[in-house]
Specification:
Order of helices and strands: HHHHEEHH
Radius of gyration: 18 Å
Number of helices: 6
Oligomer: single chain
Distance between the termini: 15 Å
Strand content: 5-15%
Shape: globular
Structural class: mainly alpha
């Protein structure tokens, strides 16, 4: 388990490094990974709002709201008030936002192909096992975030 955790930590650090490098997604300004992932979540989820997008990405609604406001200011996202009620804000991609989204989708396709090339096709059972591992990491990190926010430590290991 310790070796697996070491790989996870290196992977996490590499993703953090990738976050700091803006990339060209076919629109006027380069975008950071966190920004393109917000566009991806909006593009993939037609029935959305800030809370839904935040939940998909595992970030706070406040952080999502700030990022969406910046993306809207750059002409990539449109906020639509009142689809369901006047208080709720739905989000949709503008034409440039859709271009960035599609560019990112092609990039994901290339990454998936490279990963598949290296590990081969996984059986349903193997995919389920990998999913269990990732979900375990996610749930432990969710607990740790809550501990850090509240200042309380879990008294027992789960």
């Amino acid at each position: 388990m310790q070796d697996l955790y070491g790989v996870w930590m290196r992977l996490r650090n590499k993703v953090n490094e990738m976050e700091s490098i803006p990339r060209d997604y076919g629109v006027e300004d380069p975008l950071y990974l966190s920004e393109i992932h917000i566009l991806q979540a909006i593009g993939d989820t037609p029935e959305n709002n800030l809370r839904v997008i935040a939940g998909l990405l595992g970030v706070t609604p406040s952080a999502t709201s700030q990022a969406v406001t910046k993306l809207a200011g750059r002409g990539l996202v449109r906020k639509i008030r009142g689809r369901k009620n006047e208080r709720e804000v739905s989000l949709e991609l503008t034409d440039p936002g859709r271009i960035a989204y599609e560019h990112h989708e092609r990039s994901h396709g290339q990454i998936y192909a490279r990963i598949t090339e290296r590990i081969g096709t996984l059986s349903d059972e193997e995919l389920a096992l990998v999913g269990r591992v990732f979900h375990a990491f996610e749930s432990v990190y969710d607990e740790r975030i809550e501990e850090l926010r509240t200042g309380r430590q879990q008294s027992e290991v789960r």
